[in-house]
């Protein structure tokens, strides 16, 4: 059994660490204290009042009351004991806001009735949402897959979590990232749904930590073999070393038709290009991209060797109509899109328009390529290309490096080029299709 001195020391020490303690006391004959704390998880206020009187070595009493934010009070109870008394309580508030707890103190000497000895009080703020508790997270499927995976996490007090405090962490796989994207949705106060898109885990196991404010759960992701993927790429290119452009410049007394650098018969460089990686079986795609190649024109004296442009034509002096004259990049605002019409199929749409940045912005290269990859037979996947494009320049679609569709214009004269670029699809090639043809896995 504790001595009165140990009790007095313990309460005095504890008061230093309690959220609510009396700042000013009005106890004349002995020390007194009232304390309280609000627990948002349980929704309760707990605390107590203590009073001691050693001077008269007789009975003491402490009575506790609580006032709510509307100034209504509730009697909590009392404690009577010899020389010191402590009353502890637990109270469930009916509204949020500031509550005041008061301990009224009295002592009795030789059965002469109770004599008041002031009170102690404190206030506590009974607001705030309970801290979330996450008890489990479960994969909603038979196994993890490359692509989309659904996770359901269960617990309590999720509704008040701000979006900034919902996130995922991942590690493992020998430090190689495998979490491509994620979406977290608070479904109810007791459930959070998570959708994660994974790339392959080929080195080791991975871990995903679901974090909701101060609550969290960790899931282990086993090694996942990568499914077949297919790099789809489109290029528009000038299939010769150079062509005569539609514009002229003046060099000394000479009127010079500008030459434009081409990309070569195999399309080593390009005028416009875009691509994407398709993964049909789990139904997702990776790394869409689009770009344009550098456009360069040349004036008097080019090509220096009389046949093809070379380093000898690169004098580095711009807009002088002599040898290299100007350079620029066409603007681009296109990007590949993907649909998944049925299992084991993915269709990439590659379309856009690119114009010569060094000429008046009329017409331009146009293309619309639909590339369907089918893995119904995983040993022999196929690709089919539905095409439509301007009749200049050359167009090519490849899947995993295998050319599925190619078009090379019959001539490269200025008149033909201008007619093609101004005519658009009206004078172009297609619509038509090629395939299906077998393409390699990657």
Explain how this protein is built.
With 442 residues, the protein is mainly β. The protein has 3 domains: 4-125, ApaG domain (Immunoglobulin-like); 133-221, Immunoglobulin-like; 230-438, no CATH class. 5% of the residues lie in helices and 52% in strands. The chain has 2 helices and 29 strands. It has helices spanning 4-15, 414-423, and strands spanning 20-21, 32-39, 44-52, 59-67, 73-82, 84-91, 98-108, 114-125, 133-139, 147-156, 166-172, 179-188, 191-198, 206-212, 215-221, 230-237, 242-251, 254-261, 272-279, 284-292, 294-298, 324-329, 337-339, 345-354, 365-374, 382-389, 394-399, 402-407, 429-438. The strands form 7 sheets. Strands 20-19-16-27-28 form a 5-stranded antiparallel sheet, with no helix packed on it. It has a 5-stranded antiparallel sheet with strand order 23-24-25-26-29, with no helix packed on it. Strands 1-2-3-6 form a 4-stranded antiparallel sheet, with helices on one face. It is elongated and about 125 Å long. Residues 1-19 and 21-25 have low confidence and may be disordered.
| Strand order in the sheet with the most strands | 20-19-16-27-28
Query: Please, what is the average pLDDT?
Result: 88
The helix content, as a percent range, equals under 10%
Distance between the termini: 77 Å
Radius of gyration: 40 Å
Main sheet makeup: 5 strands, antiparallel
- Please provide the count of β strands: 29
Report low-confidence residues grouped into runs of 5 or more: 1-19, 21-25
Overall structural class, as computed from helix and strand content, comes to mainly beta
Number of DSSP helical runs: 2
* Total domains: 3
How much strand? over 45%
Shape: elongated
């Amino acid at each position: 059994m504790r001595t009165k001195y140990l009790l007095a020391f313990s309460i005095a020490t504890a008061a230093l660490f309690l959220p609510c303690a009396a700042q000013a006391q009005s106890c004349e004959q002995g020390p007194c204290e009232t304390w309280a704390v609000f627990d948002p998880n349980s929704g309760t206020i707990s605390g107590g009042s203590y009073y001691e009187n050693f001077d008269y070595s007789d009975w003491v009493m402490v009575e506790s009351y609580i006032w709510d934010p509307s100034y209504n009070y509730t009697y909590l109870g009392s404690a009577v004991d010899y020389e010191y008394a402590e009353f502890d309580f637990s109270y469930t508030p009916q509204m949020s806001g500031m509550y005041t707890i008061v301990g009224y103190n009295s002592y009795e000497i030789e059965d002469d009735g109770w004599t008041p000895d002031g009170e102690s009080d404190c206030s506590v703020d009974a607001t705030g949402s309970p801290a979330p508790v996450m008890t489990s997270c479960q994969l909603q499927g038979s196994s993890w897959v490359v692509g989309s995976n659904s996770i359901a996490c269960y617990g309590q007090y999720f509704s008040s979590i701000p979006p900034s405090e919902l996130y995922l962490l991942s590690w493992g796989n020998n430090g190689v990232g495998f979490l491509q994207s994620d979406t977290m949705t608070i479904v109810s106060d007791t459930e959070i749904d998570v959708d994660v898109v994974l790339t392959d885990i080929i080195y080791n196991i991975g871990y995903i930590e679901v974090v909701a404010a101060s609550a969290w759960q960790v899931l282990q992701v086993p090694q996942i073999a990568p499914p077949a993927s297919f790099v789809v790429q489109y290029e528009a290119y000038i299939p010769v070393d150079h062509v005569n452009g539609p514009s002229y410049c003046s060099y000394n007394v000479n009127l010079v038709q500008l030459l434009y650098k081409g990309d070569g018969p195999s399309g080593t460089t390009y005028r416009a290009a875009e691509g994407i990686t398709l993964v049909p079986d789990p139904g997702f795609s990776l790394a869409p991209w689009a770009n344009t190649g550098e456009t360069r024109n040349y004036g008097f004296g080019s090509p220096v060797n009389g046949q093809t442009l070379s380093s000898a034509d690169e004098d580095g002096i711009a807009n002088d109509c002599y040898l290299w004259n100007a350079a620029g990049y066409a603007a681009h605002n296109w990007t590949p899109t993907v649909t998944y019409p049925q299992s084991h199929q993915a269709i990439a749409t590659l379309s856009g328009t690119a114009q010569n940045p060094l000429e008046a912005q009329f017409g331009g290269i146009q293309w619309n390529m639909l590339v369907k990859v089918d893995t119904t037979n995983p040993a022999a996947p196929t690709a089919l290309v539905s095409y439509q494009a301007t009749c200049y320049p050359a167009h090519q679609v490849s899947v995993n490096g295998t050319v599925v569709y190619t078009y090379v214009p019959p001539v490269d004269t200025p008149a033909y080029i201008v007619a093609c670029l101004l005519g658009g699809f009206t004078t172009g090639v297609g619509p038509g299709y090629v395939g299906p043809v077998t393409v390699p896995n990657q």
